[in-house]
Amino acid sequence: MSGTHLNRRAFGRLLAAGAGAAALAACGGSSTPGRNTPLRISAINHVWSQAVQKRLPEFEDSIGRRVSMQLLTADQLSSSYNVKLNASANDIDVMMVRALQEQLLFARNGWLTDLSDLVADQEFDWADFQDAPRQRSITRDKVLSVPVVTERPALYYRKDLVDGPPATLDALREEAFRLTTADRFGYVGRGQRSGAVTQWSSFLYSFGGDFTTADGGSGIGSPEAVAAYRFYGELLDRAGPPGATNMSLEQAMPIFAQGKAAFYIDADAIYSNFLDPAISTVQEQVGFAPFPAGPAGSKPHNIPSWSVGINQFSMLKDEAWQFIQWVSGPQMVTELQAAGIPGARSSAWEDPSTLTAFPADLAEAMRINAENGIGHDRPEVIQVGRARDIVGRPLVAGIIGQDVAPVAAEAHAEFADFLVRDNRQQEF
Amino acid sequence: MNRSLWTALRALAITVVCLIIAMPVVWMIAAAFKTNVQVTDPSVGLIFSPTLENFRNVLADGEIARSLGNSALVGLISTVLSALIAVPAAWAVGRFRMHSTGSLVLVARIVPAISLLVPWYYLFAQLGLVGSYTVLVLSHMFVSVPLILWIMIGFFEGLPIELEEAGRVDGLSAFGAFRRIALPLAAPGTATASLLAFIFSWNNFMFALILSDENTKTMPVTLFNFISYASTDWGGLMAAATLMTVPVLLAAVFGQKYLVAGLTAGATKG
Asked: What is the CATH number of domain A39-150+303-372?
């Protein structure tokens, strides 16, 4: 071989040198971001984010920096965080998170900045946030997120079919069975194993149960939980649509919107779907009511469905906090709530002008549900997805007409084991 | 069995299979011309008064056009670069029996994409490439190169070696024999492999979700703009999905014509 050609060893050396140079370049220290670096916000594609996006120029002017807001679906957002933050990404500054679904995991991984000192600022008025959503923002005594959107269940019903909304779960069942005909379902709701758990939680609490006991053990084998499983299963089995076990929000909601069901219980955040003539045929007939009372009273969930936090690896933490102050401050929360997006500040809820955007009966239902609300709608564990799978199994059994008790007993044993393992992972 | 009965049964089976395969596409196109109320109403089948409203809304949205452009750019560049690397490599693997090297390249197809994303993201973020077209092209090439390579190995192995040997006798170098003899004969294979690589790139969601930014995001990611937390704009989603499917469908139809011509030409020469 002539001297000008590379032999195999020389080629190897060149390759190693190239790889080394690339590695050195990659490990180079990160510099402070310049004025042209935008503040990056990762958010869910939600009416709240869309409303904030429209108001961004006002905030950009105040901080003198461009803001880039990326809107994704909940699953995409979760995947994006898991990949990027595993690699200590600093191209996300503000993170929209589901405090009940992922905050514990993110806290364990050290991905969320401690906001405890920042929210203590008098002007921010942390005490103004409703108690239940505020408590869910705290993990291991640290405030890791600030709630911006809250959610409760609402009873959607057809005003043309009943004189008034049922006040109790027993009355709901009776009416739903009565109104079930060949071309109409008495009740529609989520029946998908994991997807139904959050809506079923209000039934569970109203029967006197909870996902876990006071000492942290499984609560889904209790007589109250079994009664709630049986009630919900029977309701969907006898009055619900066929294939209910495949239905989550996306499948159940259109059935009510099409006028094919008499009752529907789901998040109050979706109410506008029934008033939109492009989607709904029941905009004149739909009524809104508080969650009906069970044997233990009316105990719906009242949760921070979406919160905002700061990426631990962000290089723009000051600006990120300014953004959080702006979007969760009393002025913006009042403004957004008046536009139909329920927030977490008590002052906004106490201001009657913020409720004028909602139909009067819905505003009243939301207020009552918020008062009675319990601050979680799923098991509070690290592996929420796995927990929902276990808890949801007896629900499916009930909906397909099986005897719930043995399935609940089995799920109870599995959930108890799961909680022991999950608790171990929570030691951080 | 009676021959005509057998033919009829075969035709019936083919029709049923075609209908089952075509059904989602038919539903998608039909839904693109429906209102959202009609889309979610199971009693409205294929008989309805169509609306162009969904297409009007989608085309008025500048983001859709930009994303389609991004998808086309990333798809074309990654496919061309992959073919430039993988086709000669496939010839070398096929001709010089380098099958262990070929298997090594195949690992890229075996490893789940999601497991590659964390190290890729880390590396590309450090190099300041996240959000650029470069990173999307590179990530797509990681899958396209092995795809083209493995399709083309079979093609080159199927070509009679005597043709290249004749060229060598007439004074061609090894590479010259590849370029002037093997490559033209493998054109149908190259077209097939490139088309499959382009389709992969066009539909890839996960790489674009993590590695693109607002300016470089491709169509599969943008499609999710129609799905929000509490509602889905089914009509808009289906109109955008139809617009996204048409270019690939056209490429496949025209590509197929070219493939048939290429195969026939090869057979005549043989």
From this structure: 3.40.190.10
Domain A151-301+376-425 matching CATH 3.40.190.10: the answer reads yes
Chain mean pLDDT for chain B: 87
Among chain A residues, the shortest Cα distance to B118 is held by A83
Compute CA distances A155 → A249, A265, A300, A404, whole Å.
14, 5, 11, 25
Distances B235 to A71, A152, B205, B232, B250 between C-alpha atoms, Å: 20, 29, 21, 9, 23
The domains spanning A39-150+303-372 and A151-301+376-425 adopt the same CATH topology: yes
Q: pLDDT below 50 — which residues of chain A?
A: 1-6, 21, 23-30
CA atoms within 13 A on the CB side of B48: 21
CATH of the domain at B175: 1.10.3720.10
Residues 180-239 of B with CB under 8 A from A: 206, 209-210, 213-214, 221, 224-225, 227-232
What are the tens digits of pLDDT across the range B155-208?
Answer: 888 888 898 899 999 899 988 999 999 999 888 889 889 998 999 999 999 999
- Sequence ranges of the domains in chain A: 39-150+303-372, 151-301+376-425
∠ CA A300-A306-A311, nearest 5°, is 145
Pick from B237, B247, B219: which is nearest to B28 by CA? B237
Owning domain of residue B178? 51-269
**Looking at residue A164, what is its pLDDT?**
93
Whether this model's ipTM surpasses 0.85 comes out as: no
Continuous H helices in chain B: 3-32, 36-39, 53-60, 62-95, 99-110, 113-126, 133-158, 161-169, 174-177, 183-185, 187-203, 206-211, 219-222, 234-269
Do β-strands A39-44 and A94-97 pair in parallel, antiparallel, or remain unpaired?
Answer: parallel
B3 belongs to a structural domain: no
Q: From residue B263, give the alpha-carbon distance in Å to each of A223, B84, B151, B249.
A: 71, 21, 15, 21
Of A70, A279, A281, the CB nearest to B231: A279
Q: Grade residue B92 by pLDDT with cuts at 50, 70 and 90.
A: very high
User: Lowest-confidence range among A213-222, B96-105, B240-249?
Assistant: B96-105
**Amino acid B233: pLDDT:** 87
**CB contacts, 8 Å: A19 with chain B:** none
Instruction: Count how many domains chain B has.
Output: 1
In a domain, B31, yes or no: no
Over range B39-67, report the average pLDDT. Answer: 85
Say if B8 falls within a structural domain.
Answer: no
